[in-house]
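Appendix B, Record 12. Input sequence as logged:
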Amino acid sequence: MDYNSKRKKLALPEYGRNIQNMVDYLLTIEDREKRNKSAQTVIDVMGNLYPFLRDVPEFNHKLWDHLAIMADFQLDIDYPYDPPSPDILTSKPNKIPYNQHPIKYRHYGRTMELIIKEAERFEGEERQIIIEQIANQMKKSYLAWNKDSVEDDKIWEDLDELSKGKLARHEEMQLAETKTLVAKKKKPTNKKGKK
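Logged structural output:
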């Protein structure tokens, strides 16, 4: 019995074994003119797998690139586009540069540090509202990372440290209760009112 696991590995399995066999046959054709015509036929068959994309120029270019890959870059034909080089399959993509900013408290996150810095611009009552909202968000973030309850004084100390003393607590400021910040979602009820 001839199992796929014992056959040659497909370079592009999305095209299937039959198209790979056609490409392998192209490599055996000695007459260049016949090989060019046969290659165009294989491209047409590959395009028939995706008829809605067949006439898009970029897709046509992609098909020729796929043909070169499936032929292991050994096919000597007149490509309508420059064929890709073999090193595209082994080259690694460029690294994405990540911003590496030191974060004092990871459970609050970098965004909270930026918000605290931005809040320093505000004045008056608006500033007090923003400070209270920031502190409540810090408490919520703290509770999301640390399931233990947290004292409000700890949040205010952290806010004071992160703002370098620029965002001060007002005496009448109160943080939200822990149970309201981490309230569990209720299960949806069916039409009869049962859970």
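Helices lie at 16-26, 32-48, 57-70, 109-119, 124-145, 152-162, 178-181.
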